[in-house]
Design brief:
Length: 773
C-alpha cells in the first residue's frame, strides 16, 4: 500500500551530508518525494510502500557526523509523483538546528589525496560531505554555500557535476572545491615581503622547516607557528611568541610516531585518531630528551595528528614531527584574519603558508586527556564547538519556559554560553580577555553566535566579581534582566548540568580563586543542594594572600603567609625558614622589604583572605622549592603534581571543626608542621608531594562522609581547576567510590573556568523562572 508522510528532523543534520544520505535511502527503497534544509533542521516528504524500512535505516545508518535529537512524523495524502529530489533550502526565523563542528580529513579523502589518478591528488584543501571546515566558515544558517565563506569561489564544471550527482560523496557538499576552483595556496616571505603563487608552496615550506626556520601555517580555525623539535629553535619560538614556560604541543605524522614522544594508551590513541583530532595530553616518553624543554614542570606533553590535507602533505621526505602552537603572541587571541595575521606574524614567522578561503570566526585546537579511562576536555574548541549541551531534561523536570539568554563566563579560560530553546551553546575557548584584542574577539564571537543562532537575548548572567571584564560587559546591557552568579556555584552547576543531575548533591569545588558571597576569595568549597539552591556548608580555613593578586603570580608569598599563620596559631618560631624563603624567591630581597611584609601580614594590609585550594597548592609548592614568579596560571601547582612519582597511603594530619554558623572548616596547621618536620629530616620532595596529595584525597573523602551523615546525600559532584590534577581527581573518585558514593565529574565540559558559563546559564535560567513565579 502506498503511503505518504512528512518528517521533520532536528539535531546536527546540516553540513554532515544528511540530505544526500536521505536521497540515497529514498532511491534504495523506491520512494518518491523531496528533502530540504530549513531553520529547524531537515524536512522531507516520502511516498511509497517501504516507508517503515526507510525510517529504521534513517536512524541506524545516519552519517557518522550527524546527530538526531528529534523526529516528528505526520501522515499525508499520497499524490502523483515519480521521483525524489533535493529542494533549495528554506530560511525561517525560528532557527533550531544544531551547528556542525569542523571535522578532520576523512579516510576516503585521505585516500584520494594520495591517488595519482584522482583529480584531487595532492589537493591540500580536499574535503567532502563528511569532513573539512564547517563552523569556522558558516556566516549564518541554514547551511548553504551562499551562507558560508565559500561564496567567494564559483564551483568549476566538474565540481558542479559532483555537487549534483546523488551517488557522489560530495553531493550537496557546500564546501566542495578542487585544484581548479579552490582558494589558491600562497607562500609569504616574511623577510622580503613577497607572495609566492607557485603550486609547490608546501614543498618549499617543508624545505624552509628543514633549514630550521620558524613558519606559520593557516589551518581550519587560524594560524599555527611551527618549527623542528630542536632546543635552540624551541627557545627562539618562545622568545618570538613571548611564551616563556607554557607547554608547547607537537604535531606528529602518525600514531606510530606519536609513541616516540609519549606513552600513548589505547584510550588516548582513540582520541588522537577521532574526528575531532584534539591535542591529547599524554605521559612523556622517558627517551624523549627534549620533553622538559617543550613542557617544563609537568610529566605530560600535548600530541596531535594531522587533521587537514595541508598537514599530511607537509609530513613527507622524512619530516615526522613539528612543534606546533597557535600563531599569536602569548595572551592574545588566535589570529585568523589574513591581513591582520600577516601583520602580527611579522617578526614571529620567517614564512607563512596561507590560502584565500576566509575564516569567519577563529578557533583554537581543543585539548583533552584521559582521566579514569574516560575523556576529560580541558580546552573545548575545534571539533567540539558548537555542539550544544542539551538541557531538555531540565526544561521538562522543572517546567522551564524557553527564554534565550547569555552567560558571560569568567575572565580567564573564557567561554560564554547562549541558551536557545533548551540547548546550551558553549562558545569556543577564547582564553584571557584582559587585552584589547581579547575583549574585541570576545564581543565579536558573541555577535557571531547570536547571528547564527538567530535568537533574542533576554537575560544575561555574569560572575559576582565586580572587577571582571565580563561582569562590566554584562552591566552595559541595563535593559536586559541581569543575574549575578557566584563563581564556584557556577562550577558546581556546570558539573550538575553536564551529568543531568536532578537530586541534591554534595559539591566539592577545588579551584584557584573566585569572588565569594562574603567578599572573601573562595576556592576550596563544599556545597549541598541542586540547581534550585546551593548552600555553602564547608571550606578550607581562610588564610591571608600577601600582596593580594601578587600572591597568585608569586607562590612564595602564600608559603610565607602560611608560615606566619602557623607561628601565630601554634606559637612556634619559623622566622629563619621565612627569611630563607624570602631571600630565595623575592625579586628584590631587602631586609626592610621583609619587615614590611611581616607588618603587612600582621596588620592585614593588602592581604585579602582566601579559602582557595589552588593557593594551598602554591604554598606547598613554594615550600618544596617552586616559589619563583610563575610564567603561566597554576604553574607551581602543576610542578607539585609532577613531583609525585607514585601515590602513597601515608598522609599528613589536618583538622575539621564546625563553626557556630554550622559550616565545616578544614585547618592545615598540623599538616604544615608535619611537612616541615619531614623536610627538615631530609625527606625527598617526591615523598613530601605524594603525602600532601594523599592528604587532600583523605580530607575530601572524610568531609563528604560527614556531609552525607548530616544531609543524607550520597551523590558527589567534583569541579574546579584543581580537578585537572590526575592524582587528585582519580584519588578522590576512587576514595569516594570505596565509601559507596556515586561520583560525578566533568568530561565534555572543562572542569576549569572554561566550563563556568554553562553553570551560570543553568543557574540563571532556573533562578529567573523561580522569581517570575
Amino acid at each position: 500500500m502506498v503511503n505518504r508522510i512528512s518528517i521533520q528532523i532536528e539535531g546536527r543534520v546540516q553540513g554532515v551530508g544528511f540530505r544526500p544520505f536521505v536521497y540515497q535511502l529514498a532511491q534504495r527503497y523506491q520512494l518518491s518525494g523531496w528533502v530540504f534544509n530549513n531553520a529547524e533542521g531537515v524536512v522531507l516528504e516520502i511516498q511509497g510502500e517501504k516507508i517503515e524500512a526507510f525510517l529504521v535505516a534513517l536512524v541506524d545508518e545516519k552519517p557518522e557526523a550527524a546527530q538526531i535529537n528529534k523526529i516528528l512524523t505526520k501522515q499525508k495524502v499520497p499524490i502523483k509523483e515519480s521521483e525524489f529530489i533535493i529542494r533549495e533550502s528554506e530560511k525561517r526565523v525560528d532557527c533550531r538546528i544544531e551547528l556542525p563542528p569542523d571535522r578532520k580529513i576523512c579516510d576516503r579523502c585521505l585516500g584520494e589525496l594520495y591517488t595519482p589518478t584522482n583529480r584531487r591528488y595532492r589537493d591540500a584543501l580536499i574535503n567532502c560531505s563528511q569532513c573539512g571546515p564547517r563552523f569556522t566558515m558558516i556566516k549564518e544558517l541554514p547551511y548553504d554555500r551562499e551562507q558560508t565563506t565559500m561564496v567567494d569561489f564559483v564551483k568549476c564544471e566538474k565540481c558542479e557535476e559532483e555537487y549534483k550527482n546523488p551517488s557522489n560523496h560530495r553531493f550537496h557538499t557546500e564546501s566542495i572545491c578542487c585544484p581548479e576552483c579552490e582558494p589558491q595556496l600562497l607562500l609569504w616571505d616574511g623577510i622580503n615581503k613577497r607572495r609566492d603563487h607557485r603550486v609547490d608552496a608546501i614543498q618549499k615550506l617543508r624545505y624552509k622547516l628543514q633549514e630550521e626556520q620558524i613558519v606559520a601555517i593557516k589551518g581550519v580555525g587560524g594560524y599555527h607557528l611551527a618549527t623542528l623539535i630542536k632546543k635552540e629553535l624551541i627557545e627562539k619560538l618562545r622568545e618570538r611568541k613571548k611564551r616563556d614556560l607554557r607547554p608547547l604541543a607537537i604535531m606528529v605524522k602518525d600514531l606510530k610516531t606519536a609513541k616516540k614522544y609519549g606513552e600513548v594508551s589505547d584510550e588516548e590513541a582513540k582520541l588522537l585518531t577521532s574526528h575531532q583530532a584534539p591535542i591529547v595530553l599524554v605521559k612523556k616518553n622517558l627517551d624523549f630528551a627534549l620533553g622538559d624543554v617543550l613542557a617544563p614542570d609537568t610529566e605530560r606533553i600535548g600530541l596531535m595528528l594531522p587533521y587537514m590535507g595541508i598537514h599530511h602533505l607537509l609530513f613527507e621526505e622524512g619530516l615526522e614531527a613539528l612543534v606546533m602552537t597557535s600563531g599569536n603572541l602569548s595572551g592574545e587571541p588566535i589570529d585568523y584574519e589574513d591581513e591582520k595575521a600577516l601583520s602580527h606574524l611579522e617578526g614571529m614567522a620567517d614564512y607563512v603558508l596561507f590560502h584565500k578561503r576566509r575564516i569567519e570566526i577563529g578557533i583554537d585546537d581543543s585539548v583533552t586527556c584521559v582521566i579514569g579511562g574516560k575523556e576529560q576536555i580541558i580546552r573545548r574548541a575545534r571539533g567540539y564547538t558548537p555542539q550544544p549541551i542539551t538541557l531538555t531534561y531540565l526544561k521538562e523536570q522543572l517546567q522551564l519556559a524557553p527564554i534565550s539568554g547569555l552567560a558571560c563566563g569568567g575572565d580567564m579560560k573564557n567561554t560564554f554560553c547562549i541558551l536557545r530553546e533548551d540547548q546550551a551553546y558553549l562558545s569556543q575557548h577564547l582564553g584571557s580577555i584582559d587585552t584589547i584584542n581579547g575583549l574585541a574577539f570576545y564581543k565579536k564571537s558573541i555577535q557571531h553566535f547570536k547571528k547564527i543562532l538567530d535568537c533574542d537575548i533576554q537575560w544575561i548572567a555574569y560572575d559576582l566579581h565586580p572587577h571582571y571584564i565580563t561582569t562590566q560587559y554584562a552591566k552595559e546591557f541595563k535593559e536586559k534582566f541581569l543575574i549575578g552568579i557566584q563563581h564556584h556555584k557556577a562550577h558546581l552547576a556546570s558539573c550538575i548540568t553536564e551529568n543531568h543531575l536532578m537530586d541534591p548533591v554534595i559539591g566539592v569545588i577545588y579551584d584557584g580563586t573566585g569572588y565569594g558571597e562574603d567578599g572573601q576569595i573562595w576556592g576550596g568549597e563544599f556545597f549541598v543542594g541542586d540547581l534550585k539552591g546551593l548552600e555553602r556548608v564547608g571550606h578550607l580555613q581562610y588564610v591571608k594572600m600577601l600582596g593580594g593578586e601578587q600572591a597568585i603570580r608569586e607562590p612564595w608569598r602564600m608559603a610565607y603567609s602560611y608560615l606566619m599563620h602557623l607561628e601565630e596559631a601554634l606559637g612556634i618560631d619559623l622566622s629563619a625558614r621565612r627569611h630563607k624563603l624570602y631571600n630565595q624567591f623575592a625579586k628584590i630581597a631587602l631586609e626592610e622589604g621583609e619587615q614590611l611584609l611581616a607588618i603587612s601580614w600582621k596588620k592585614s594590609l593588602f592581604t585579602p583572605y582566601t579559602s582557595s585550594m589552588g593557593r594551598l597548592f602554591d604554598g606547598v609548592a613554594a615550600l618544596l622549592g617552586k616559589g619563583e614568579e610563575i610564567g603561566y596560571e597554576a604553574q607551581a601547582a602543576i610542578w607539585l603534581e609532577h613531583q609525585v612519582k607514585d601515590l602513597t597511603q601515608e598522609s599528613y594530619p589536618y583538622d575539621m571543626a564546625k563553626e557556630e554558623s554550622g559550616k565545616w572548616v578544614i585547618g592545615f596547621e598540623r599538616m604544615f608542621k608535619a611537612l616541615i618536620r619531614d623536610q627538615s629530616k631530609g625527606e625527598k620532595v617526591s615523598t613530601l608531594a605524594a603525602k600532601f596529595h594523599q592528604t587532600i584525597i583523605c580530607m575530601t573523602v572524610e568531609m563528604c562522609e560527614k556531609l552525607r551523615y548530616s544531609y543524607h546525600l550520597n551523590q558527589v559532584a567534583l569541579s574546579g581547576g584543581v580537578f585537572q590534577n590526575h592524582f587528585i581527581v582519580e584519588g578522590c573518585i576512587n576514595g569516594l567510590l570505596k565509601k559507596g558514593f556515586k561520583v560525578y565529574w566533568q568530561q565534555q565540559v572543562p572542569t576549569n573556568d572554561g566550563g563556568i558559563s554553562l553553570g551560570q546559564c543553568a543557574l540563571a535560567w532556573v533562578k529567573l523562572q523561580k522569581e517570575e513565579r
